[in-house]
# Entry
Amino acid sequence: MRNLEKINRLVIKVGTSTLTYENGSLNLKRIEALTRVISDLKNSGKQIVLVSSGAIGVGAQKLGLNHRPKTVMEKQAAAAIGQTQLMEIYDEFFRRYNHLIGQVLLTHLVLTDRKMHNNAVNTFQTLLEYGAIPIVNENDTVVTDEILFGDNDTLSAHIANMVHADLLIMLTDIDGLYEENPNDNPQAKLLSEISVITDSIKKMAGGSSSNRGTGGMQTKLEAACIAQKSHTKTVIMSGDDPTKIYGLLEGEHIGTYFDC
# Structure
C-alpha cells in the first residue's frame, strides 16, 4: 500500500524527453514548473536531490544539429556545451525561490571505487545539510561508458541508495508501466502498484518512446530493483505536469508504484 505522506528525502530524476520539446529545445515552462514544485517541497522541510538528463540534447540543439549525436565523441562534445546552459537555467529558476544548487557530475567508477564512493556520499550529505539542492548528471564529457547506460535511470537509483532516500521519483514521457504499449493499444492497462518485478513484468517494458532520450522502461525497472536495496520506494510517472508530485505525496494513485 502507498504511504508517502511522511516521505522526507527524495531523489527526483527527470529525463531528456521531459525537459525538451520534440525539436530538442528546452521546455522552459516545464522546467520552471518543476523547479517551483521542488522549491516548495524544500520549503516544507523535505530534502531533495535532482538527477537531470538533458545536457546532450541541449548541446545538440546549440550546435544546430537536427538529430541526436550518434558517435561517443559527438555526444561528449554536445554534453560539454549543453551542461553549462542547463545549469544556468536551473540556477536562474531556483534563485527566484531563494534556493541554492550544487552541480555534481559523477561517473560509474564512483559506484565501484570505495574511496570515491565515500567521498561522493559525504558531498551529498554536506550539500543537503547546507540546504542546497544537488543537481546530478553523468560526467559524459570525460568518460564513454556512462553514455551507454541510459539517460541517468540507473545512476539515479544508485544515488537514492547513497543518500538513503525514502523515495525515488522518475519523471518520464509516459504515465507509468502499462501491460501493453499504449501507443499500439490505447486500451492498455496502467499498472498502479508492483510488489515483485517478475520476468513477465520485465517483458512489458519496451524501448525509449522518444528519440531525444536514451532510457526506456527497461532501465527504469532496473532502477527500481537497484533502489529497493536501500528500501527506497520508486514511482515512475509522467513529467508533463510536475505539480502532480503534490498529489503523489498526498496519497493519490499516480504513476506506477514499486513497493519491492
Observations:
- The beta strands are 9-14, 47-52, 101-106, 133-138, 167-172, 193-194, 233-238, 256-258.
